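Long-time lurker, first post. I've been practising inverse folding by hand and with some scripts of my own, and I keep getting stuck on stretches where the structure tokens seem ambiguous. Below is the full token string for one chain I'm working on. Before anyone asks, I'm not after the true native sequence, just a reasonable design that respects the backbone. If someone could post their per-position residues I'd love to compare against what I wrote down in my notebook.
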């Protein structure tokens, strides 16, 4: 029987959750940027979710390269777990035990997904404040859970009013991507105190924890030292400037980490062995080089904020990270139309605000991590002009 005869020409089905999933908007925009740059176009890239640091390549021959070619501990190299725990103890006053309360894997994205798998059952609800990092909701849906969104202007004190019998997790991004809002220790404690008695997990994504300059940063691991009902997720991507290496970690209670480890064993196996070795061996050296550059980025953010004030360009409040959530003003179209018009006509890349929630469609995310202040200033003037435009969108 021929191969054609074996087929009934009916398309094979997909998991409907995956089939209906939207593409990650920030990655879609950046793919358009890559395509334009390959054509030789000069694009002002304000869409990338990373800062570009000057980082030397340390001597790799000091590592056990042969061992790095193979699998390593699924929970993550013990020495690196201890360094991460020590970093949290030193910088955030969080009494983390690297042996039992830290798990390292291939980036924080799969860790967040695995944390949801460990905590949620189908039909459970996940409450997410807007503007929200765009993968939280899709990962919740992949778990069979139901994401529910709180508008960006929803009073923080109203959180309990949004709980239902099915609420099982609240997700916060602290500092927030994309607005740069910092949650205080008192606010985090307030969230925990209304969630824990109701059996609701609190997951806090702290990926930008070092991009805080003037305001104190409170880690949830310090607010709730025993980590009961708390999952903290972070990575080495941002503060070490190595997002392409895909090294993330979770901090939680011994019991939760033990369950997360089982998922990691079945889904990922382990983080990239050689890169974990490298980060462990040169941890202090890399941090000593990149943290001052992190501070410079946040200082740059303050200067860019003044540029926006000079232009009277509106934005959501925030003081951390290298992002701004900028108003598109009276532009007579959606944030997606705004971003695409800006990219196609002016070669300036931003991310549509609707990617971060339905209530934030009148904003775009502007990242200042990869462009000079001169180019940012020029781009902001174009953004302001477009935001004030009265002509219908193209």
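-- Answer (accepted) --
I ran through it position by position. Result:
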């Amino acid at each position: 029987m021929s191969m054609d005869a074996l087929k009934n020409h009916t398309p094979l089905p997909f998991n409907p959750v995956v089939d209906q999933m939207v593409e990650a908007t920030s990655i879609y925009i950046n793919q358009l940027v890559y395509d334009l740059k390959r054509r030789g176009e000069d694009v002002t890239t304000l869409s990338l979710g990373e800062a570009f640091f000057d980082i030397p390549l340390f001597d790799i021959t000091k590592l056990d390269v042969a061992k790095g070619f193979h699998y390593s501990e699924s929970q993550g190299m013990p020495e690196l777990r201890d360094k991460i725990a020590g970093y949290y103890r030193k910088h955030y006053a969080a009494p983390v035990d690297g042996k039992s309360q830290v798990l390292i894997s291939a980036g924080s994205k799969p860790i967040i997904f695995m944390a949801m798998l460990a905590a949620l059952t189908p039909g459970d609800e996940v409450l997410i404040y807007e503007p929200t990092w765009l993968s939280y909701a899709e990962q919740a849906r992949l778990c069979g859970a139901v994401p529910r969104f709180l508008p960006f202007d929803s009073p923080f004190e109203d959180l309990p009013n949004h709980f239902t019998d099915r609420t099982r997790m609240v997700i916060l991004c602290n500092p927030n991507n994309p607005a740069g809002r910092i949650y205080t220790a008192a606010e985090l404690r307030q969230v925990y105190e209304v969630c824990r008695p109701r059996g609701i997990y609190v997951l806090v994504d702290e990926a930008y924890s070092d991009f805080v300059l003037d305001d104190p940063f409170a880690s949830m691991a310090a607010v709730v030292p025993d980590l009961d009902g708390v999952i903290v997720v972070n990575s080495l991507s941002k503060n070490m400037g190595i997002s392409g290496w895909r090294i993330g970690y979770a901090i939680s209670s011994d019991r939760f980490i033990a369950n997360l480890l089982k998922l990691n064993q079945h889904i990922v196996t382990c983080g990239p062995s050689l890169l974990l070795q490298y980060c462990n061996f040169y941890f202090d050296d890399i941090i000593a080089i990149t943290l001052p550059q992190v501070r410079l980025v946040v200082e740059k953010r303050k200067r860019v904020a003044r540029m926006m004030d000079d232009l009277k360009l509106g934005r959501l409040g925030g003081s951390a990270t290298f992002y701004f959530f900028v108003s598109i003003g009276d532009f007579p179209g959606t944030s997606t139309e705004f971003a695409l018009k800006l990219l196609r006509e002016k070669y300036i890349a931003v991310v549509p605000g609707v990617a971060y929630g339905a209530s934030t469609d009148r904003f775009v995310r502007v990242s200042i991590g990869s462009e000079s202040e001169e180019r940012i200033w020029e781009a902001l003037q174009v953004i302001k002009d477009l935001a004030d435009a009265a002509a219908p969108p193209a």
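A couple of notes from the structure itself: The first strand starts at residue 44 and ends at 45. The chain is about 40% helix and 15% strand. Happy to go over any region you disagree with.
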